[in-house]
Amino acid sequence: MLFGIGGAFGGQVRIFAGARFDSKTWAKLEKLDVKTLSRDRALESHVGQLVELHFQFRSKELRHIKSNWWQASVWQTAPEGHRGFASVPVMIANTDLKSFNSFTTDSRETGDLKIFGQVLYDFGMNYTFVRVIGTNMFVDGDGYANVTW
User: Fold this and answer.
1) 103: which of 58, 96, 145, 148 is 20 to 30 A away, CA to CA?
2) Residues of the chain whose pLDDT is less than 50?
3) Gap between the Cα atoms of 128 and 110, Å rounded
4) Burial (CB count <10 Å: 0-12, 13-18, 19+), residue 149
């Protein structure tokens, strides 16, 4: 099943200044790194899934490709035996751009950074990406997982 930027979880997520997920939806979160998700067809095989994506730095270039969305990528040193870096495309909402920009663009960085997001497919652009939701998670009194910056 493929989804656009609109609501892929059909009422299971409420968007506010971050996102709120019920425990059943949050339990399906998959923890991945850029090396894994950048492999051939790996991103496409995760469309619709929530992910915790680990990386080392973000791209310097940000492109304003839709009225409320920016395109970028997150990067990690390539898997062993390969030279260079691996990357995964991401989309960031206008309201989250300042927070996303706080990530380093230094390719020498070795720290482990993470974002929470949802892998989506945009039909109009024929483009698969991770929609960035935030970097922090807490469980509220109602048992919902809340993702914020």
Assistant:
1) 145
2) 1-16
3) 26
4) middle
Question: Across 35-143, where does the E strand assignment appear?
Answer: 50-55, 57-58, 63-66, 69-77, 85-93, 113-122, 127-134, 136-139
Straight-line distance from the first to the last Cα atom of the chain, in angstroms, rounded to the nearest whole number = 28
Q: What CA–CA distance (Å, rounded) separates 7 from 25?
A: 14
- Are 73 and 130 contacting, i.e. CB atoms less than 8 angstroms apart? no
Lookup: tokens for 48 = 């619709």
Place of tokens 């469309």: 47
Residues 72-102: pLDDT tens digits?
999 999 877 678 899 999 999 999 999 999 9
Distance (Å, rounded) from C-alpha 111 to C-alpha 113? Answer: 6
Strands 85-93, 127-134: pairing kind: parallel
Query: What six digits make up the tokens of 122?
Result: 């945009």
Give Cβ neighbours of residue 40 (< 8 Å, ≥ 6 apart): none
The whole-number pLDDT of residue 8 equals 43
